[in-house]
Amino acid sequence: xxxxxxxxxxxxxxxxxxxxxxxxxxxxxxxxxxxxxxxxxxxxxxxxxxxxxxxxxxxxxxxxxxxxxxxxxxxxxxxxxxxxxxxxxxxxxxxxxxxxxxxxxxxxxxxxxxxxxxxxxxxxxxxxxxxxxxxxxxxxxxxxxxxxxxxxxxxxxxxxxxxxxxxxxxxxxxxxxxxxxxxxxxxxxxxxxxxxxxxxxxxxxxxxxxxxxxxxxxxxxxxxxxxxxxxxxxxxxxxxxxxxxxxxxxxxxxxxxxxxxxxxxxxxxxxxxxxxxxxxxxxxxxxxxxxxxxxxxxxxxxxxxxxxxxxxxxxxxxxxxxxxxxxxxxxxxxxxxxxxxxxxxxxxxxxxxxxxxxxxxxxxxxxxxxxxxxxxxxxxxxxxxxxxxxxxxxxxxxxxxxxxxxxxxxxxxxxxxxxxxxxxxxxxxxxxxxxxxxxxxxxxxxxxxxxxxxxxxx
Length: 458
Fold this sequence. Notes:
This protein is mainly α. It has a domain at 345-458. The chain has helices spanning 13-21, 31-46, 54-74, 84-96, 100-105, 114-125, 140-152, 156-163, 172-184, 186-196, 199-209, 213-217, 223-231, 243-257, 262-269, 278-287, 292-301, 308-325, 331-344, 364-372, 376-391, 401-425, 444-449; strands at 130-132, 167-169. The chain has a two-stranded antiparallel sheet with strand order 1-2. The longest helix has 25 residues, at 401-425. The protein starts with 12 loop residues before the first helix and ends in a 9-residue tail after the last helix.
């Protein structure tokens, strides 16, 4: 491999000093030596080591940027030449700029010739990102193995847990190279993600690109990269995200639904819906384009024991869905929701659960819609049946008072949704609400006798 030197003329003092401090040669440098150069230059340009006023320090950084840009213009970057000069130049550009994205933005597109792109691609291919460890209870190798296992099993809920609050540790030269490739040759970044099939690389690229990664993810045949891109915005307020990005995220949902990873994907992203979020806006668009098999995974994903706000979030998500699909074409969604809710039955068969009051659940809206799809005579018969069961609770033997209260509250929780189905069929003059009214005691006497206590009341 041929060696190519950098121009010594007008080399900033900080760069030459950092090269000397890190014992890096201009002709050849390993990735670890470039990291040492990065640390040395960072100390010189940002830690006040160089003499001069703050204004003069800013000039030192500008001088380093200008020198790096001049080097990019003169480096031939033939395929048989060493990448060490390119690594040093990109590292200088990174350190001399406020951020990696700003470093990439000042590189003119005129430099994006074929050899430059090939050099960037090779540099990224040779990079090996890690995660900056927060916990001392797990080694880098253990974390990497856990990430690979979660990725292999499409366990995206586990993947979210493992990467939450983590930051990717990737070399500065690779950071700038990835950003430049995204700007000048995005297809190359897509190819690298697909060919590497490395969960840490996908994580690092997404963290580096931020919200930009959503657009790139559309063309990447790697569900884990798509997941990191969507997950980063899933709970963001919808008002802070462009409509085009919401539409792109809906498209990503549909793309993943065509793979065997849909269930793992939706089991995480739909587990705890929140109001006014990107998920609330994007998911109904996607669900309306999918079929009952995909809906079943969505229904299984949502946690039923949740705060009342989740019931509202699910309603806000499914109202646009039914408006798009229509009552008849969406019927299977409501049947699936009812079946899961009916089997769950407010934790009736779960040990250690108890209701201190009638309870909301995440499926308040879809279950009420299911009942509203039945003949009205059946709805009224179900209401009457449940009311009789409630009236007879005190005539039944229970091992403890808490068991009696739990059974009464369970039945009362069910009947409130059946009653709301009648409201959906016959909207009141003051307007229709998707959810049943707030839960209150039937009377002052009932509140005392049945020890009404709403744990979610504000």
